[in-house]
Design goal:
Layout: E1 26-34, H1 52-55, E2 58-60, E3 66-77, E4 89-94, E5 99-107, E6 125-127, E7 145-146, E8 150-155, H2 159-165, E9 169-178, E10 185-193, E11 199-209, E12 214-224
Parallel strand pairs: 4-12
Antiparallel strand pairs: 1-3, 2-3, 5-6, 5-10, 7-8, 8-11, 9-10, 11-12
Pfam families: Ig_CFAP47
InterPro entries: Ig_CFAP47
Protein name: CFA47 protein
Length: about 250
Amino acid sequence: LSGTQLAPKEKLDIPVLFMPDTMKMYEAVMVIHVMRENGENWPYEDSAELNKDLKSSVTVGENGEIQGILWIYPIHGIPEAPQQKLVPAVVRCRARQRVERRVEVLLTGVVPGAKAMPAARNSATATINKPANVQEEIQVSDGFSTTVEFLYELQYKSNEIKSQLGALVGMHLIQRERDTESGIITLIFNIVFAPNKPMRNEATLVVQCTTGGVWKFPMLFIATEPEVDDVINIEAVGLNKESIVGFKLTSQTR
């Protein structure tokens, strides 16, 4: 087979095309075999005692010299659900208060051959009901939270938004259901939002199946103006005279 000739320090671009038909991870290995153009080998003194790692990355000729060098690159293809114009799940709360919302997301294509879901239903929806007790225990860890089959996290457009929302939003997976006919999986999350000041920030709920496949759902966090703490009345004692009233302010932080 004829190969590609490369000059010293020349770059070689190898295009990789990925067209998944199911929501699962695909694995492949790209192997690059390099040999000298003049057909000569590379001498190697200890060719008879090549270690195991080196044997997998070279080809050895009959005389024990190195005939070619192999570069092996593993490739993981992770399909992502098509990005449609989804309606964001809105979580709204007054500043200095705390609210809990249920967010329900539908995952299609988890089971190969599952029917596609209508675009109108492929969205995240928030309800105002508080979460009921869940019998199935779901273990959650910090960062990318791990369940039996899924990983999930909230992603933000910038580090600035992440620093604002990171400590104000909590998320837990509380229920998981599968439709046996369509193969569609429903995940129900409990979202806790406790803003300390008015804001309006966007986030993306990213769900990844451990067998491969990524789904993304937009979310919108809105914190409105807080309630008035108190009303201070100052009575006038006369024209051109000062009236003074004292009150205490307590800092919420150090």
